[in-house]
Amino acid sequence: MKIGLLKELKTWEKRVLLIPEHVGQLVTAGHEVFVESSAGKLSRYLDEDYEQKGATILPTSEKVFDHSELLLKVQPPLPIEYELIRKHHLSVSFLLLPNHAERMSALLECEATFFAMEMFSNSDGERPVLTAMSHIAGKIAVTEAAKYLEAGSGGKEYCSAEPTEMMRPPLQLSVRELPEVPRHNML
Question: By the number of CB atoms within 10 A of the CB, which of 79, 123, 132, 145 ranks highest?
Answer without folding.
Answer: 145
